[in-house]
Amino acid sequence: AGGLARDYGSYLQTPDTIMPYQNFQWSLCQVASRGTAGSDEYGSLRMVPIMDMINHDANAGGFVELMGTESYDKGDFVEAAMDEAGTFVVRSIRHGKRKPLKKGQELLVNYNVPGYSPLDWFVSLGFVPPERWSQWTKIDAALPRVRTTPQQKTGSGTGEHDGTSFFSTSSSSAGNPSTSNNNNVPMDQHHIQIEL
User: Based on the number of CB atoms within 10 Å of its own CB, is 190 exposed (0-12), middle (13-18) or buried (19 or more)?
Assistant: First the structure.
């Protein structure tokens, strides 16, 4: 987004409160979360109004891109002419079978991204579908938990206390630290407790 803003930002009309970088960032997020994959011939990633608002269901049918050669005689579900190639069709299908919609019933589609992890779903599409909920993997923190705590004793500044390591740094200004807190610990001395 930064490169696009640098190269083309001067061509955009934006309100004074929005920077060109923010506009490009928003636009890229829209394409990433709402774009529909298709054939390279007609555009491998396309924004299709209204179709991008159809919700996902793993048991629904997918987006179908017409090639322009479909016919009933060949067993296809639609007759298509060559000038209709690249058109997307969404059919009401549940569990592989055609299912007519009832009045007020929502049309659903399978986004068909089997290689997406739960994190991919969340980052790219803004949600994690139920069929991916059980596939989370807990990752333990790479670093120990850290919290700030008052110094337990004055002296060297490091020491052991109930299996916990204490580290401190001092940065007094002009060698005259303030000691106005309740523990008589210099206010500019920082103590970090790391639980191991």
Answer: middle
153 vs 98, 105, 166, 192, CA distance in Å?
75, 69, 10, 13
What does the pLDDT look like over 55-112, one tens digit per residue?
Answer: 999 999 988 888 888 888 888 888 888 988 888 888 899 998 998 999 999 999 998 8
Query: What is the pLDDT at residue 196?
Result: 44
H/E stretch holding 131: none
d(CA 88, CA 185): 69
The whole-angstrom separation of Cα 176 and Cα 187 is: 11
Both tokens assigned to 99: 């299912």
> For residue 42, what are the CA distances in angstroms to 46, 47, 68, 176?
9, 12, 12, 72
Q: Which amino acid is present at 180? A: S
CA atoms within a 13 Å half-sphere pointing along the CA-CB vector of 151 = 22
Cβ-count burial 66-102 (b if 16+ within 10 Å, e if not): bbeebeeeeeeeeebeeeebebeebebbeeeeebeee
Q: Do the Cβ atoms of 19 and 1 come closer than 8 Å?
A: no
Ranges of H-type helices in the chain: 2-8, 20-34, 118-125
Average pLDDT over residues 43-63: 87
Distance of CA 168 to the CA centre of its chain: 38
